[in-house]
Automatic annotation (TrEMBL):
Chain ranges of the TY-Chap N-terminal domain: 29-153
Protein name: YbjN domain-containing protein
The TY-Chap central domain, residue ranges: 208-339
Organism name: Actinoplanes digitatis
Region of interest (Disordered), residue spans: 337-362
Superkingdom of this protein's organism: Bacteria
Top-level taxonomy: Bacteria, Bacillati, Actinomycetota, Actinomycetes, Micromonosporales
Annotated coiled-coil segments of the chain: none
UniProt xrefs under InterPro entries: TY-Chap_M, TY-Chap_N
């Protein structure tokens, strides 16, 4: 199962207390809280409401694979859930026979068995058994899809008209609409051009990728045609010595705003602890280390897309990446994206009590 490949290397990122001896117990408790919160939420939702939960693909290191579970509440307290199957996953990230068997053992029906389930695994229950549904979804995300901790999940609760529903938190999972903060279009553009462009895009039914490019181009004071787009379709935004990328995913609709803060860095326990400390202080997003690269990531849901959410994510990420790559490079070595002469050898003698402030972004 995927969990065996990712849990061990990711657990240390989540260490929020350097003196904690039983980290696995803390992770288990976080999953228990998530399952309980989800089980408590489902019976309170109106008919037609949806709960979409996605393993953040950038933070989890799953590349182009998007592992997700979607639940909806029907009449008479019926709950139906869909979990992504192999047909929705790229090669290299598809589940093996053991993982498929684990899904079935948890109670999921194979793709196509539940009416209208299509290529997804299906589950049908009711709000009276919401506690069990929460446990099944939690086990699916952790044990089958390989989510190392609920903090790597983003979720959205909305009604049948795709309008967001405010709910109590699902443990440490991230509620994507909560990142909008106090940012407004007028705050970001004093001459009104940004507001006009984004309002026009929001009023039209156009693909998410085009809407995202319109937002980024307007923020960059350029045109869509002049954006820096690589072969993968990622939009590149230079931020000092750092590079920020904006990637649009289709299934489910998701926008990744991410940055390779450092490459060729040695993944030590001290580094994992620092990234955990900084993540806990970030207003949105997270930091993590995958192999020899430190990443920063802020996911933005594409469903019911809000331009202000993406603008806030880009604003925070560009400032954060440019500041953090310098600070972390000075403490742990590695190479910055535009850091000429950087060396991958971590410096010696870093002390636990060193100043870890990272300015206005944390």
């Amino acid at each position: 199962m995927m969990a065996e490949n990712t849990a061990d290397q990711s657990d240390s990122v989540l260490l929020d207390d350097p003196t904690t001896a039983d980290l696995r117990a803390k992770v288990t408790e976080a999953w228990r809280e998530f399952a309980g919160a989800l089980g408590a939420l489902l019976p309170t939702l109106p008919d037609g409401a949806h709960v979409d939960i996605t393993l953040d693909p950038t933070a989890s290191g799953t590349g182009t694979a998007v592992y997700s579970v979607s639940m909806r509440v029907l009449a008479d307290g019926v709950v139906e859930a869909l979990a992504v199957g192999n047909a929705g996953l790229p090669e290299g990230y598809r589940m093996n026979r053991s993982s498929v068997a684990d899904l079935v053992a948890l109670g999921w029906s194979p793709p196509g068995v539940l009416p209208d389930s299509g290529d997804s695994f299906g589950l049908r229950s009711n709000t009276a058994a919401a506690k069990q549904v929460g446990a099944i979804v939690s086990r699916t995300l952790r044990d089958v899809y390989g989510a190392p901790h609920p903090a790597f999940l983003v979720y959205l609760v909305h009604d049948g008209a795709d309008e967001p529903i405010e709910t109590a938190p699902l443990g440490t999972a991230r509620h994507e609409p909560s990142i909008s903060g106090e940012l407004s279009l007028d705050d970001l553009d004093e001459d009104g051009v940004l507001s006009e462009a984004l309002a026009s895009a929001a009023d039209e039914v156009i693909p998410l990728e085009e809407r995202v490019r319109t937002v980024v181009a307007t923020m960059s004071k350029t045109t869509v045609d002049q954006l820096q787009v690589d072969n993968d379709g990622d939009i590149g935004i230079r931020a000092g010595s750092a590079m920020v990328f904006v990637r649009v995913r289709d299934n489910p609709p998701l926008v990744d705003v991410f940055s390779p803060i450092l490459t060729e860095v040695e993944p030590t326990e001290q580094l994992y602890m620092k990234l955990s400390e900084l993540t806990n202080r970030m207003p949105i997003g997270r930091l993590y280390c995958a192999q020899d690269t430190v990443w920063a990531s802020i996911p933005v849901f594409g469903r019911n897309f809000q331009a202000t959410h993406l603008m806030l994510a880009v604003q925070v990420m560009t400032g954060l990446a440019d500041e953090l790559d310098d600070r972390l490079h000075g403490e742990f070595g590695g190479k910055r994206f535009f850091g000429e002469g950087d060396k991958p050898v971590p410096p010696k003698g870093t002390k636990e009590g060193d100043d870890h402030r990272t300015g206005m972004y944390l």
